[in-house]
Amino acid sequence: MSVPAILALEDGTYFQGLSFTGEGESGGEVIFNTAMTGYQELLTDPSYRHQLVTMTYTHIGNYGINPEDVESRGIHLSGFIVKECCKLPSNWRSTLSLPQYLREHNIMGIEGIDTRALTRHIRLHGAMRGYISTLEDDPTKVVEKARSIPPMEGLNLVGEVTTPRPYRWEGGPHPVELHKGRYKWKGSGLKLVVYDFGVKWNILRLLEKEGFEVLVVPSFFTASQIKELSPHAIFLSNGPGDPAALEDILHEVSLLIEDFPTGGICLGHQILGLVLGGSSYKLKFGHHGANHPVKRIDRSHVEITSQNHGFCVDISRVDYLKQTHINLNDNTLEGFVHKKLPIMAVQYHPEAAPGPHDSRYFFKDFAEMVKRVS
């Protein structure tokens, strides 16, 4: 049953629509995503923590929800904004509808919004705090609630999405117990410790496919704890929030990168950029979608990539880092390598889920780098 709802932005702009998940309220940073499909993977991507996600494609929910296409254990965004939600999906894999899925996880969903107008507003004025409410009929009060939400700058959200305990990835997550801080590797491949800052499962699937034996650890593991595990390499995952707010994580990573080959994606890329001397800054409205063109500089080759980030790093003054990829929409950094140390990272999502597979070579390149120095 649809319920009248208001979406209000911190600048006083508001939209009236209908909640397709029942009564409630929710707030976060309002962004837009340009992907036409893949909404289930998007919903379960931990990098969307504390965000209200607007889909630019007009009709969302057509193929329903299935248990195979999830990227984590649950939904992480604060709310879902669409032009029109399909309540009766048609797909042989579907086990429930989009409204049912959101209600099961207590996530607000709102439709009937002019998503083109909302997207244009964000493009012109930038991502901003917003609030969805069915409980208030006065837009000014909903605007006040939007303004009460903490801004994304300075926000450390990793602790809200990281795994509470280590697990082995072998076709899926399997809890493990560490004995006196040590782990008994199976010996089936290169030993890789993945820091979970909000990791997407397809990253783990593709690392396993390249022959890695993958152990995932919480974000609060120290460098000494990682060294006790005796891996061949470490990997820094994607995740939400402001990378500059992760002071403890930045410190621990700085103690590891000279001892282990290291890779990173998205937030992991930003963390490495900061640790190695770069700086970070907030993008006006971020990069969120499955159709962003990125140039691979060494081959003058263009890839269509999946992206989800609101911050970026600048390494232009760090002479020992080499830029490998650049965003063709705004010329922002999309990838780099260290000129001497075995370190490589990309800002975009080579694992896709959702998105094209143009960039999956990244995982093979990382595996070859690790093999060379192990």
What does this structure look like?
The chain is of the alpha/beta class. The N and C termini lie far apart (58 Å). 22% of the residues lie in helices and 32% in strands.
List the helices and strands and how they pair.
Layout: E1 3-9, E2 14-19, E3 25-33, H1 39-43, E4 51-55, E5 59-60, E6 79-81, E7 84-85, H2 98-104, E8 108-111, H3 115-125, E9 128-133, H4 139-147, H5 158-161, E10 167-169, E11 173-175, E12 190-196, H6 201-209, E13 212-218, H7 223-228, E14 233-236, H8 247-254, E15 262-265, H9 267-275, E16 279-296, E17 301-314, E18 321-327, E19 333-338, E20 343-346, H10 361-373
Parallel strand pairs: 3-4, 4-6, 5-7, 6-8, 12-13, 12-14, 14-15, 15-20
Antiparallel strand pairs: 1-2, 1-9, 2-8, 3-9, 10-11, 10-13, 16-17, 16-18, 18-19, 19-20
Helix pairs in contact: 8-9
Distance between the termini: 58 Å
Rg, alpha carbons: 21 Å
The largest sheet is:
11 strands, mixed
| Proportion in β-strands | 25-35%
Give, in order, the helices and strands: EEEHEEEEHEHEHHEEEHEHEHEHEEEEEH
Arithmetic mean pLDDT: 97
Low-pLDDT residue spans:
none
Spatial arrangement of strands, main beta sheet? 11-10-13-12-14-15-20-19-18-16-17
- What is the chains' assembly state? single chain
